[in-house]
Amino acid sequence: MKTTKYTLALTLTLAATGVSLTPVQAAETLRIGAFVSATGPASFLGDPELKTLELYIKEINAQGGVLGQQVELVHYDDGGSAGKARTYVNRLIGADKVDMIIGGSTTGTTMAAVPLVEQAQVPFISMAGAIVITDPVKKWVFKTPQTDRMAATKVLQDMKARGMTKIGLISGTGGFGRSGHKHTLEVAKEMGIEIVADETYGPQDTDMTAQLTKIKSTPGVQAVFNFGFGQGPAIVTKNYAQLAIDLPLYQSHGVASDKYIELAGDAAEGVRLPASPLLVADTLPETDPQKPVVTAYKAKFEAAYNMPVSTFGAYAYDALMLAVDALERAGSTDKAKVRDALEQTQNYVGVTGVYNLSAQDHMGLDVSSFRLLEVSQGTWKLVE
């Protein structure tokens, strides 16, 4: 199996305008555009994504670039706004004339970009989770994270294995939460699991006690699954502990980072969620084909930034390396050839999983790429 030849290197900073270029701007450069939510409510996603892109592009240039050209990163901070994302993607395509685009920290910002890249026929790799991004398949759109449906499947499989067939569901009302809610209901029906309580919360809500009290008082509830991202799941976790709900609590991959444990504190103890192996890199068996890639990324990111890695930065790593691999196999920056090369990616070992793409699958991962993790003594433990 093939792994990337690149490693982490150096940081760059955002300019006051919200756009930053790599230092090298030769007459012939390969331009990669990016739009991320580096600030705002989704900054816990976009900040590590941007840091990862900057680090690796610097290293790629130090090693000679791609196709004999230096790589120029043109990026914008959409602050989590779909409207800003749309504006910046138009700029990347029209004014900046990038060769390909990586971006969309959230489902909302990603979906704002989809019609634009499809019309302009520019290869686009998203870092957001909802299944709608690549299902149905869109010719020019790819993604690196597992889908919300796969996350629901992984969680419900564990619940069923533990004998839990009646559950409470709580989810955010944003794009990610709504999609996760929809697919959890579908997967639960397929698996014979009954959703006996179903509650939601808004992105600005600061207390979910009322919703959790309803779930707690519902007869027959055996476990609770929260589908959301940002601070909402941490609030749910704290309220859950305050109400002394003595049932297993599960979260989605939308909070798969140390930030969740930091925000939720001791209340997170025992919470389970699906995630890529990055958060338990050091405990992976030596025979795991992802271990070299995962441990290298973790060590170098943390050394460069003096902060913990998150699975969200890994989505950016995989997006960039899949892009570079496709460019090299295409032997050209011709957008149609690069798109075709992306679609033909096979057995590519990334941090998130081993990617096998096709004309029918523009993500290339399955449920097995998820590992089930549990918070234990303030850190992540591999359950399986």
From TrEMBL:
- According to the record, the signal peptide region is 1-26
Q: Which SUPFAM superfamilies match?
A: Periplasmic binding protein-like I
Gene3D superfamilies (alphabetical) = 3.40.50.2300
> Which residues belong to any copy of the Leucine-binding protein domain?
29-375
Ribosomal protein found in the keyword field: no
Keywords, ordered alphabetically: Signal
Q: Which PANTHER family match?
A: BLR7848 PROTEIN, LEUCINE-SPECIFIC-BINDING PROTEIN
The similarity comment for this entry is: Belongs to the leucine-binding protein family.
Q: What is this protein called?
A: Branched-chain amino acid transport system substrate-binding protein
Q: Which organism is it from?
A: Allopseudospirillum japonicum
